[in-house]
């Protein structure tokens, strides 16, 4: 798994449904090496810090192979690198990961640790897009289509600051012993009901240090609701 493109951007104001909206979803590729810090990449910022950015969402990764899927889903649409607001456009097809729906999300786990360039990172969560993805595509249903596709990508927290650039490989440092795939976190978030097996997976997820507390609070609430329904 390696970086194909590093993309950054500063917040800008755009008009969406007649309203002025400030967003940092617009990212462009940058050349050379760039500093990756605890909160973001140099030259990259988020607009609404209440839901975007922060140490648990310092860097967003999205696979290059998913662009082919979206070109079929959105014929005639121009899809330049960085279109999904990702910081790292990544290639994983050459490293033996299976192709298909959410394939990388099935192979990457919350808590997996990697070195990239001179930095180190840990996988923290899948992406749950807000309405600004629809703004970027000028499509009201894009958020729903994105989630339904299973192709969410994932966020990284930076555990050691350093420099990164296109061509850098993700070198595995340590898999998380809890081994809950990114795809399972997304599925359990949107599932209307939990089976006993689902509840067991949630209990495992709650033990993963890298999973943000906001996600753990949500899953604890779901488990409490499950007890009330039983």
Describe this entry's structure for a reader:
The chain has 230 residues and is of the alpha+beta class. Helices cover 27% and strands 25% of the residues. It has seven helices and twelve strands. It has helices at 66-73, 103-107, 132-137, 142-149, 182-190, 196-205, 213-229; strands at 2-8, 12-16, 19-23, 28-29, 34-36, 59-63, 88-91, 113-116, 119-126, 154-160, 162-164, 170-174. The chain has an eight-stranded mixed sheet. Strands 2-3 form a two-stranded antiparallel sheet. Strands 5-11 form a two-stranded antiparallel sheet. Strand 8 (113-116) and strand 9 (119-126) form a beta hairpin. The protein is globular, with a radius of gyration of 17 Å.
Summarize the structure.
The protein contains seven helices and twelve strands.
Contiguous low-pLDDT stretches (5 residues minimum) are none
Strand percentage:
25-35%
Largest sheet: 8 strands, mixed
Helix count from the secondary structure assignment: 7
Terminal Cα span? 43 Å
* Mean of all residue-level pLDDT scores: 90
As laid out across the biggest beta sheet, the strand order is 4-1-7-6-10-9-8-12
Shape: globular
Radius of gyration: 17 Å
Share of residues in helices: 25-40%
Number of strands: 12
The helix-and-strand class reads alpha+beta
What is the element string, with H for helices and E for strands?
Answer: EEEEEEHEHEEHHEEEHHH
